[in-house]
């Protein structure tokens, strides 16, 4: 069975363990084969629209949708394989040889497996720490915290392209120059008049508590072959990533980070600091006759300095519609990865798939384009805590795991939105 038949999506094998390089290459070849079938089916649909009375054959449209869905599934499988293949081991050789690190790791493992916190209490007394206790949980070893951060960067789409800052306090404050000091040209011997002072805006990014509560059986905790650090990191990564992904896009700032779509928007022609500029497609809930024009306008609404590191951000369904668009010469605007491990591109800019972005609808800002490294800031407060709870869900042991995260727009000129409105 091949994807060219268009009858059904390919059967995807379960991913067990770390994939080999040959498995990654095979998955990539399968993805490229599917994209060629997609282009063939879409070209057939366009030809039928132009030549047939009553438009394209419904069977052709169904076949195109099935191939489009298969592309999404294969891309997800390929991304998962690459993520697993790239995962580093916990900590470095130097860190593992550190006596303090090994002492903390051993004490933490004893606490997780048996509930004995004597070793952790002694360590925190040595460090004069008063913020950690049995009621609030204990800090995980530093290498486990770094592993959780690495996994979140791979799974959380906005975190992967945004700026990330680690802080020790509850609020990160950042001054931003809205208007720089006045400058001008003067001759060699001419007087230098005093320049006007810059206009500064203070941005505040409070950190909010994000939690997950994985459960373990007594058998798992008694099994010495189970790496406890690895288990905790793998259990909380998906829960943290899903909550972060939603908050960085749609969060209202109330007990969660503020997402970039929660900020006010203005048409690009009337853009002002404190809001995100928008470009309209020219049709309510759809692309105009020539959809590529709106994308070109979106790209060039961004200043040249931001375009160098810019990315498109959209949902899977929106990307499915984008795949059908062509330029004036008949070339597809969306292009698959050139090699395994690379990302898809749209008009030579990378495409980031964020499922929390709204799908195409009337007046929806379904596509974002910008330099998110400069436009959006993720703030992580140092420290991940774990509280062991053997009572609430007996016979299971719950591990209440928390970290503090904040986020918000730091440069309103670095992100533009495509709005599906007339």
Q: Residue-averaged pLDDT, rounded?
A: 82
* SSE class: alpha+beta
Strand order of the largest sheet: 7-8-18-15-11-14-13-12
* CATH 4th-level superfamily of the largest domain: Major capsid protein gp5
What is the CATH fold-level name of the largest domain? Major capsid protein gp5 fold
Total strands: the figure is 18
Strand count, sense and barrel status of the largest sheet are:
8 strands, mixed
Poorly predicted spans: 1-14, 88-97, 128-134
Proportion of β residues?
15-25%
Structural summary, described in words:
This protein is an alpha+beta fold. It has two domains: 3-86; 108-178 and 199-315 and 354-422, Major capsid protein gp5 (Major capsid protein gp5 fold). The chain has 13 helices and 18 strands. It has helices spanning 21-51, 58-86, 93-97, 99-114, 118-126, 142-155, 157-161, 218-222, 228-250, 291-301, 304-307, 316-322, 372-375, and strands spanning 138-139, 163-167, 171-179, 199-206, 208-212, 215-216, 265-267, 276-280, 282-283, 286-287, 311-314, 334-335, 345-346, 349-353, 365-370, 376-389, 397-409, 415-419. The strands form four sheets. The protein has an eight-stranded mixed sheet with strand order 7-8-18-15-11-14-13-12. Strands 1, 2, 5, 6, 16 and 17 form a six-stranded mixed sheet that branches. The chain is flat and about 75 Å long. It starts with 20 loop residues before the first helix and ends with a strand.
């Amino acid at each position: 069975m091949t994807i060219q038949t268009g009858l059904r999506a390919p059967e995807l094998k379960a991913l067990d363990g770390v994939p080999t390089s040959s498995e990654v290459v095979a998955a990539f070849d399968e993805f490229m084969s599917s994209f060629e079938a997609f282009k063939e089916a879409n070209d057939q649909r366009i030809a039928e629209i132009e030549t047939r009375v009553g438009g394209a054959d419904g069977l052709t449209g169904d076949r195109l949708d099935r191939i489009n869905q298969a592309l999404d599934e294969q891309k997800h499988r390929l991304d998962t394989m690459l993520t697993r293949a790239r995962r580093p081991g916990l900590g470095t050789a130097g860190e593992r040889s550190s006596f303090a690190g090994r002492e903390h790791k051993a004490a933490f493992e004893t606490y997780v497996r048996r509930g004995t916190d004597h070793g952790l209490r002694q360590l925190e007394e040595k460090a004069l720490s008063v913020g950690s206790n049995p009621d609030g949980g204990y800090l995980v070893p530093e290498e486990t915290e770094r592993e959780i951060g690495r996994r979140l960067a791979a799974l959380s789409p906005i975190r992967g392209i945004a700026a990330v800052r680690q802080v020790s306090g509850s609020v990160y404050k950042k001054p931003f120059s809205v208007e720089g000091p006045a400058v001008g040209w003067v001759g060699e011997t001419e007087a230098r008049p005093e320049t006007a002072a810059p206009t500064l805006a203070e941005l505040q990014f409070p950190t909010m508590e994000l939690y997950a509560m994985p459960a373990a059986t007594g058998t798992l905790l008694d099994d010495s072959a189970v790496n406890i650090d690895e288990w905790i990191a793998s259990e909380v990564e998906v829960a943290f990533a899903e909550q972060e992904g939603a908050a960085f896009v749609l969060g209202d700032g109330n007990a969660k980070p503020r997402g970039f779509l929660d900020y006010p928007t203005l048409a690009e022609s009337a853009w002002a600091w404190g809001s995100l500029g928008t470009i309209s497609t020219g049709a309510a809930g759809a692309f105009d006759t020539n959809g590529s024009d709106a994308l070109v306008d979106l790209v060039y609404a961004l200043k040249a300095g931001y375009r160098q590191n810019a990315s498109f951000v959209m949902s899977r369904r929106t990307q499915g519609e984008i795949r059908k668009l062509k330029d004036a010469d008949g070339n597809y605007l969306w292009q698959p990865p050139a090699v395994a491990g690379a990302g898809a591109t749209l008009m030579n800019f990378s495409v980031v798939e964020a499922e929390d972005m709204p799908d195409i609808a009337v007046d929806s800002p379904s596509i974002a384009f910008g330099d998110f490294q400069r436009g959006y800031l993720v703030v992580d407060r140092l420290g991940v805590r774990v509280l062991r709870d053997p009572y609430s869900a007996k016979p299971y042991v719950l591990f209440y795991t928390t970290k503090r995260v904040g986020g918000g727009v730091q440069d309103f000129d670095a992100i533009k939105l495509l709005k599906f409105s007339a």
